[in-house]
Specification:
- With 312 residues, this protein is mostly beta strands.
- It has 3 helices and 21 strands.
- The strands form 5 sheets. The protein has a 5-stranded antiparallel sheet. It has a 5-stranded mixed sheet with strand order 3-10-8-5-21.
- A hairpin with a 4-residue loop joins β6 and β7.
- The radius of gyration is 20 Å and the shape is globular.
Length: 312
């Protein structure tokens, strides 16, 4: 399960998109653990993200969520059975976010145009807690254009580039002093044309008489953290920019036309980097914020260390 602290919006799922990895708990004779291993309930994967066949951004990790905890003693073996291949070999590594989630990211952003494949051959693999994998999972996806958004909280701007070329600079408002926006790089989780956002769902206020209470359905929502950070349009801040003193509850506000334009530009995995906020960087497991960890920090959470992908 993806976790994090509260921000400006609610109404989203606690799970990453990409639930096509779900599997049946039934075992067949051909997929049973080898006779040398004790029989036990299956080890299954809840999700693998990205979904197979998708095109994603350069900051997108591969995120695998298991239905049951994987013991520390079993993680190196589990990692080695989750093979990552790419059309352009890159250096990367797995990193455990607790005992049920492991993400693989390259040391630096993926090169655009890279074809990627993950073969999670779990057959007979132990999770260290009495469960054994019963079959394999395969996902293939493509890295699309290198689209990046750089948000300056103090400058009230968002600069959007595509493949290294400047596209547009948009006026924004970020979080208020009381509810500052996360700093750091967050890969887009998903996007929705409309999202129902409530202050109660993210722990800000359930008191309808409070000035911080809101219950709104807002358009053109690009999802950055599981805790509720979005880039979107807000009816309470229709003309954001340096001339507007109104801050958000942690989201990044755009005008209606800019929010629609940005929504149409970005895809899952595109990096949005926010600077100038008094808040810390979002934790790596608060959505897909893997690049908020330095490479040494990332490797510290790996059981098998860095590797170079096999070549597709």
């Amino acid at each position: 399960m993806l976790v994090g602290l509260s921000a400006c919006g609610g109404g989203g799922s606690d799970k990453a998109s990409g639930s096509d990895a779900k599997a049946s708990g039934k075992q067949s004779a051909s997929a049973s653990p080898t006779p040398t291993k004790p029989a036990g309930p299956p080890m299954l994967l809840e999700t693998i993200t990205p979904q197979t066949g998708t095109t994603v951004g350069v900051a997108m990790p591969i995120s695998v969520i298991f239905t049951d905890p994987v013991a520390a003693k079993a993680r190196a073996t589990v990692e080695k059975h989750m093979k990552v291949s790419a059309s352009q070999p890159v250096v990367g590594a797995w990193h455990w976010m607790g005992d049920k989630r492991a993400d693989w990211r390259p040391k630096t952003y993926w090169p655009s145009g890279t074809k990627v494949k993950i073969d999670a051959d779990m057959t007979g693999v132990s999770n260290g807690n009495g469960r054994y994998g019963v079959h394999g999972y395969t996902h293939t996806f493509t890295i699309g254009d290198d689209v990046r958004a750089d948000v300056s909280v103090t400058g009230h701007t968002m600069k959007v580039t595509r493949n290294g070329e400047a596209v547009r600079t948009l006026s924004i408002n970020a979080g208020s002093a009381q509810y500052p926006t996360w700093n750091g790089t967050m890969a887009v989780i998903d996007k929705q044309e409309k999202v129902h956002m409530t202050s109660c769902s993210v722990g800000i206020s359930c008191d309808k008489g409070s000035s911080d209470y809101y219950d709104l359905t807002l358009p053109w929502d690009v999802h950055l953290t599981q805790s509720g950070t979005y880039v979107h349009y807000s009816t309470g801040d229709p003309n954001p920019g340096s001339g507007s003193a109104r801050g958000s509850h942690g989201c990044v506000h755009l005008s209606m036309s800019d929010a629609k334009w940005f929504y149409e530009q970005v895809k899952q995995g595109d990096p949005v980097t926010i600077t100038g906020s008094p808040r810390a960087k979002a934790s790596a497991d608060n959505g897909y914020a893997a690049f908020n960890l330095g490479w040494d920090q990332w490797l510290a959470g790996s059981a098998s260390g860095q590797e170079t992908t096999a070549t597709l």
